[in-house]
Design goal:
This protein is of the alpha+beta class. The chain is about 55% helix and about 10% strand. Helix 1 packs antiparallel against helix 2 (about 60-90) and helix 6 (about 170-175) crosses helix 7. The chain is flat. The two termini are about 30 Å apart. Bound molecules: zinc ion (ZN). Zinc ion binds near residues 139, 162, 163 and 165.
Length: about 190
Amino acid sequence: MNYPPQIPEDTVPFEDGLRDIIPEKIEEVLEQLDNLTARYEEEQKVIQKLALKGDLDEPSQYFWNLWNELKYKNFFILKKWLWYWIGLYDKLPRSEIKHTPFLDKAILDKADVLRAKERPIEQFYGGKLTGTVRLCGLCPFHKENSPSFFIFTNSNTFHCFGCQAGGDVIEFVMKKFNIDFKEALKMLL
Ligand SMILES: [Zn+2]
């Protein structure tokens, strides 16, 4: 596996072409990452099975260290490719880029998204809330004089019965601060 090249300084002459290929390239790398994960899980199972049956000596720590090193090197290179395509994507004029869910996913690791989702919504609400498990307050997304907005702390989700706004903490900060998915994650992590 090869490392990606440097991101060119001037991408303007290639904009039309890049717009067409980047979504597919990113999807391709994501697929490779998934395949690699599956392959290593499979290999590990085979090695452990052989060792259990006695067909193979119990692999030493040294073996596993080497194995992990190789495994993570391949992951590392693929991640570099992912950042390469995302870096190119970032250089295209914003207004012309279609917002697609898989790009959102690619921008940060799944683990980061899960971590971001753990930040309590009420920390970003910035107003008075009543209640304990189910918090109630004025809706930040429509004008009202008495509360119809709820934060459900168990699921860390929100819902407004007045304007139907709702979702998780990522959607909350996106809407409240008028930022995109990537910026919301940055704020939450
Ligand atoms: Zn509302």
